[in-house]
Structures are given as structure tokens and as C-alpha cells.
């Protein structure tokens, strides 16, 4: 069954610490995404990847790095965590949409709730 | 600037009632529009996708419309159930790149009460 698995599901970090959020997909999708979700905002794109070895900046990349070592795995790295990065982070996988027949929905993980104190 | 606006922000209905959620957007180009359901503490699950200039879809008790000329979509839920309590998110996909960039609304929080 197709799935996107995020770990950890919850994380408390200290300001200035390093945080790594992991994402694994079993869907054989080329594209993977990291978003953050904050109250009153839609999901915002942090980084994305076209495939193993590629990472691209999204709309709000500052303070974040990404790593795509394989087709299945995509990590989000906070080198120096700050309280403003307290949020819920979602990983998704998918392929470029075309028409309705081929327009498969991106699949989302269940989220990682990160608190930076 | 927010490119996808959803209304209302929140909505309370009684079980069995119908409801309508609205989505207005300014994304250009607009390749497709998708509605997601997000249960509390969970990820987003796709309900339906609309792609044509004037489109309609139906998926059980969920039906949706899209008018690309008006840049407007609606999601109708008929005979609501307690399990329909969730946040419903409108997402517009553009053709800005082969990746198909997605633009997310902030969601409508629906609460269904007995």
C-alpha cells in the first residue's frame, strides 16, 4: 500500500540545536516535498526534490536544508533551530499532474509536530 | 499575498444537514483544483480533483464544482456525518514548472454536532 511515513511524529528541541526530520515513501514517486503548516496559513513549501540527489528551494527555505539520498528518503534539516520554526511539518510525495485520468493526488505523511524552546 | 481564499473559516452544522464550502483563487495559470480533507492531527487526504474550464465531480456525499473563468470552486457535503468533522483544504495547481506547484488555502474547519 502506498504510504508516506514521517519520523519523529513529535519533537521538542532547544534553540540553537540541530533537528532532522525524516520522510520515507513507498510510492516510487519522483517528487517529494516538505511543507510547514501554521494556524491561519495554508501549507507553505520549504524544499522539494525531483529525485535522488536533487534538492530545490521552495517558497520559505531560509533556516532549512534538505537531503534526498535515495528515491525513498527525503530529510529536512534545521541546523540551528529557532522558536519561529515551531510548527507542524508535512512531507508529501507525488508526480507532476496532467489530466484527470493521470492526475494522481500527492500523498501526505501524518506530520511532525516540532516545538523549539 | 494569499492566492487561495477559503470561506467560511469555520462552520458548525448538525448531523444530517448539508453544507457548502467556498474557494476563490487568483493563481495563474490554474491547471487543476483539488479538495483535501484533514482530520485533526493527521495528513491531507484527497477528496476530488477538478481540471476542466467548468467542471463538476461527485464522490459519494461529496460533490464539487469549478469555474475557471470566475476562479471559484465549491465543495458540497450532503447529509453530514460526525466523521465529516475536519478541516477542508482547497489547493490549486499551476503549470509554472514540470513539478506543478501547489497553492494551498488555509482551510475551512467543519464541525458536525449531533
Shape of chain A: globular
Termini Cα gap of chain A = 37 Å
How much of the sequence lies in strands of chain A comes to 35-45%
> What separation lies between the terminal Cα atoms of chain B?
38 Å
Rg of chain B (CA only): 14 Å
Number of strands of chain A: 11
Mean pLDDT score of chain B:
93
Could you say which structural class the secondary elements and strand pairing of chain A correspond to?
mainly beta
* Count of helical stretches of chain B: 0
Largest sheet of chain A: 7 strands, mixed
The string of secondary-structure elements of chain B, in order, is EEEEEEEEEEE
Largest interface: A-B, 24 and 26 residues
Secondary-structure-based class of chain B equals mainly beta
The amount of beta strand of chain B, in percent, is: over 45%
Short structural description:
The complex is a heterodimer of chains A (117) and B (114). Chain A has 117 residues and is mainly beta. Helices cover 0% and strands 44% of the residues of chain A.
Task: Describe the protein in words.
The complex is a heterodimer of chains A (117) and B (114). Chain A is mostly beta strands. Chain A contains no helices and 11 strands. Chain A has strands spanning 4-7, 10-13, 19-25, 31-37, 44-49, 56-57, 65-67, 75-78, 87-94, 107-108, 112-116. In chain A, strands 2, 4, 5, 6, 9, 10 and 11 form a 7-stranded mixed β-sheet that branches. Chain A has a 4-stranded antiparallel β-sheet with strand order 1-3-8-7, with no helix packed on it. In chain A, a hairpin with a 6-residue loop joins strand 5 and strand 6 (56-57). Chain A is globular and about 40 Å long. The model of chain A has no long low-confidence stretch (mean pLDDT 91). Chain B has 114 residues and is mostly beta strands. In chain B, 0% of the residues lie in helices and 57% in strands. Chain B contains no helices and 11 strands. Chain B has strands at 4-7, 10-14, 19-25, 32-38, 44-50, 54-59, 62-67, 72-77, 86-93, 102-104, 108-113. In chain B, strand 7 (62-67) and strand 8 (72-77) form a beta hairpin. Chain B starts with a strand and ends with a strand. The mean pLDDT of chain B is 93. Chain A binds chain B through residues 4, 31, 35, 40-45, 48, 50, 90, 92, 96-97, 99-100, 103, 105-106, 108-111, and chain B through 2, 4, 31-32, 34, 41-46, 49, 51-52, 89, 93, 98-107.
Amino acid at each position: 500500500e502506498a504510504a508516506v511515513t514521517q519520523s519523529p511524529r513529535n519533537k521538542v528541541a532547544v534553540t540553537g540545536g540541530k533537528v532532522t526530520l525524516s520522510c520515507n515513501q513507498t510510492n516510487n514517486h519522483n517528487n517529494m516535498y516538505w511543507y510547514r503548516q501554521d494556524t491561519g496559513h495554508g501549507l507553505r513549501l520549504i524544499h522539494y526534490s525531483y529525485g535522488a540527489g536533487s534538492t530545490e528551494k521552495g517558497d520559505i527555505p531560509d533556516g532549512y536544508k534538505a537531503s534526498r539520498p535515495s528515491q525513498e528518503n527525503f530529510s529536512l534539516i534545521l541546523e540551528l533551530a529557532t522558536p519561529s520554526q515551531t510548527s507542524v511539518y508535512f512531507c508529501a510525495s507525488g508526480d507532476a499532474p496532467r489530466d484527470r485520468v493521470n492526475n494522481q493526488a500527492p500523498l501526505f505523511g501524518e506530520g511532525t509536530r516540532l516545538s523549539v524552546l | 499575498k494569499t492566492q487561495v481564499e477559503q470561506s467560511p473559516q469555520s462552520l458548525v452544522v448538525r448531523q444530517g444537514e448539508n453544507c457548502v464550502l467556498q474557494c476563490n483563487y487568483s493563481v495563474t495559470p490554474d491547471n487543476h483544483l483539488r479538495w483535501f480533507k484533514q482530520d485533526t492531527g493527521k495528513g491531507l487526504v484527497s477528496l476530488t480533483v477538478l481540471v476542466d474550464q467548468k467542471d463538476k465531480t461527485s464522490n459519494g456525499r461529496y460533490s464539487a464544482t469549478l469555474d475557471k473563468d470566475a476562479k471559484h470552486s465549491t465543495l458540497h457535503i450532503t447529509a453530514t456525518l460526525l466523521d465529516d468533522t475536519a478541516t477542508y483544504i482547497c489547493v490549486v495547481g499551476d503549470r509554472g514548472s514540470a513539478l506543478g506547484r501547489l497553492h494551498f488555502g488555509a482551510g475551512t474547519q467543519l464541525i458536525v454536532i449531533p
